[in-house]
Amino acid sequence: MSEKFKILSIDGGGIRGVYPAMYLALFEEELKRRNVERWQIYQNFDLICGTSTGGIMAIALALGIPAREIYNLYLEKANDIFGSKKTKFEQLFSASHDRSSLEKLIQDIFKKYNNEKDPKLKDCKTNVCIPVFDLLEGKPSVLKNKYHQNFTRDYHIPAYKAALATAAAPSFFDPYSSDYLTEDGKSKPFKNKVDGGVFANNPTLIGIVEAESAFYQEKSNLSILSVGTGFQKFSDGKKRENWGITYWINFKKKRLIDLFMQAQSQQVENLVYVMQNGIDKEKIANPNFVYHRVNAELDETLNIELDDTDKERLEALAQKATYRFHEDATRIIKDFGTGSRWADTQ
Q1: Taking CA atoms, which of 57, 88, 316, 322 is between 20 and 30 Å from 152?
Q2: Per-residue pLDDT tens for 196-218?
C-alpha cells in the first residue's frame, strides 16, 4: 500500500490530449507488463485533476477506462470532433465547432464502462476535481465527486456533462448548458459552463489545495504527476503596427486563447516548482514533496492547434510522449506505480 497521497494532474489543450493519453497509456501498459495487479491509473492515484481535454481524460480514467482507449479515440475521431469547422461567416456569430459528435463519443464510451448507463461523478472509482467557469454566476468552479462530507453539490452530475462543461473552450465550442436530476429526483440547472482553462489550464495547484484542505494531507506527503499537452513558446518580437483584434483572434490562429492557456500553465508549473524546491532551489537536495512535470516544447514543424485533425502530426506528438515516458519510466513507476491508499480501502 502506498503511503504517499498521489495526485495526477492533466492540462487542457484540445486534441493535443493525445500527448498525455499516450504517456499514461504507456504507464498502464508498463505496470501490466510487470504483472502489477492494480495497473490502471485510477488504482494508483488518490486524486485526478483535469481541465478541458484533461478533464475529459481525468473522468474517463477515474471511471476505469484504459488510457490506450482514450488515446485511440482522440486519434481516430479527431476529424469527427473538429473536422466540420463552420464557415468563416458562421464563426462571426457562433463557435467554430458543433459539439454533437464530441458529446456522443464521450457519452458512449462512459456508458460502455458503466453497464450501458450514464455514470455520474459519484461513480468515479477514484477522486476527481474538474475546473469549469460558471458564466451564469461569473465565477470559477471546481466539480468534484463526494470525497468530503460537505461536498453535496456536484456528485449527482452525469459524468459526460461535467466533461463537456470543462471542455467548452471559448470560440471553439458554445458554453455548455443542460440540467440533471438529483438523487431525490429534483431537476437542477447546469447552465452556461465554460472551459476551466480560462483560469486553471494546469490544475496542479487545485490538486494541492484539495489534498491539504479536503484530505488533510501535509505537503510533505504529496506525490504529484503533472502532465501537459505540449506547447509552442508564445513569443513575438516583430515590430508590428497591427496588434488589434485580427492579430489576436483570426480564422487561422486564436493567439489570445493560446496565450492565456499557455501563460497560466507555465506560471502554475513555476509556482509548484518553487513550492517544491524553495527560492533559488535552496531545497532541491531535500524537496518539500515529490513533483514530476511532463511536457513537450513544440517547434514550427509540429505546431498543432487545439482543433487540429492531421493524423500524422498527432502521431508525431504521441511519439514525443513515447520518448519522454521511456526516459521517465523508472522514476515514474517507482513514485506512482505502487497503488493508492484511497483505492486500497475501497
Answers
A1: 57
A2: 999 999 999 999 999 999 999 99
